[in-house]
Amino acid sequence: AVVSTQSTGRLKDAEHQVFGIGTEVQVFGLHHALQQVDLDGLEFVLAVCETVKNNPYITKKDGIRISHIVLPGSDSILAGRLDPMVYSIRCEEYYVMIKEKGTATVDIGLTFLTELLMSHLVEMASSQVVLGYSVDGEDIVLLNMDQIQGRLREREALQTEIRDSLYKRSQLTFEFLVRSPVGHYIRVTKDIKPVYTDKSTGLDDHFTPCNILNANFAIFSKLYSAAFFYDYTPGRADVDFAVTQLNQRIVRERDRWEVYRAIQLKCMLNEDSTFLATAVRFAHSHCARIQGVQQLNSTISDLMDLQQGRNVDRSTLQTMIADYVSYCRALLKILGVGEHLKAYVELYLVRLCVEELEGLETPLRTLFIVFSSLAQFHERAFARVIRESTQRYVKAAEEELARSTAAEQFL
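Now predict its structure.
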C-alpha cells in the first residue's frame, strides 16, 4: 500500500532528521522522501541493491579502514505503485576511506579501494552477470571473463583502468545483470563514490560530486546506515538545490516519462500530493508498459554481445528471451493491436525462441522498431492528457528557474 509519513512516520534519529515507516518491513529516510511511497516497492528495490553490494573480507589495511554503503538513486523511491515495472535500477555505493594511522595517505586508501573493487567484480562474476563499466558517463565498456577471472595480463589492465579513474576523480560506474527476488532479471547501474576522511584534521574529501537529489531521496533498510550516510554526505538539507535540479529536468527533458518522474519527485519534496493520481495513471499507461519492453530488449542485446566475448551462461540469455517474449505477447493483448500486426510481431517472437545466437539481432532490432512506433502512437493519443496534466507544473518550473537565475545575476 502507498503510505504517508504524515500518518505513520515517526522520527527515529533527531540528529539526522531520519524518519521510519513500516512494521514488519521498515524503511528509513528523510521526511519528504517517505511521502506517498509503496513499501512493497521499496522493499523490492532495497533487496535488489543488496545483491550488488560489495562484501569485502578485509576492511582494514595499512592504516586505512574502509566503510561502505549502497543506496538506490532518487527515482527508485517511486518503485511500486508509481513505477510498477522496474527493469533497471541506478544506485550509488559510497566508500569512506578513514585514516586511522598517521602514516596512512590518500594514495594508500585508493590502492586499497582498487583491490576491493576488483575482488567485488570477481565475486559478482561467480554469481551474477557483470556487464561492464563506464567512466564519466561514457558508453559502457563490456567486460569478458578473462579481464575479471582469467589471465593475469587482462586482469592487471582492468585494475589499472579502475585505479586511474579513481585517481583522476572520474565517475566510475559498474553495470550488472542480477536476478531479482521475484525471478526476472534487472539491469543495475552502480556509481562508485569514494570519500577520504581524516578525523585528526576534519577533512572530508569527496572524489566525485555528491548527488544532492539522491541524498534527499535516499532510503535505507537500517537506521544506522542512514546515520552513517548523512555523517559523510554534505548538502542533504539543500532542498532548494534539489528543487532546481528537478525544475531543469521538468523544463528541458523531452521524454514525457522522465518529466512525470521529476514532477512527482518535486511534489514529494514539497510534500504536495496533488499530482499523485495523475502519476499513478501514467505509470500504468500503455506508454509506460512499452518502455518496460524496450528496456528488456536493450539488455538482451548487450547479453548477446557478451556471449560472443566470453562464456555467459546460455541459460541466462534464454531466460531473458523467454521473459521478453511472454511480456510482449501479454502487452499485445492489452494494446489491442490488429491481427495483421499481431501476426507480424509473433513471427519475430518465434524467431527469437528458435534462432541461434547469430540470428537474434534482426528480430530484436525489428521488434524494437515496432514497439517504438506503438509507443509514439499511444503517446500521441495520450498527448492531451499529458499536456493538460503537466502544463501548470512546467510553467511553475520555468518561473522558478527564471527567478533563481535573476537572483544569481543580482548577487
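The first strand starts at residue 2 and ends at 3.
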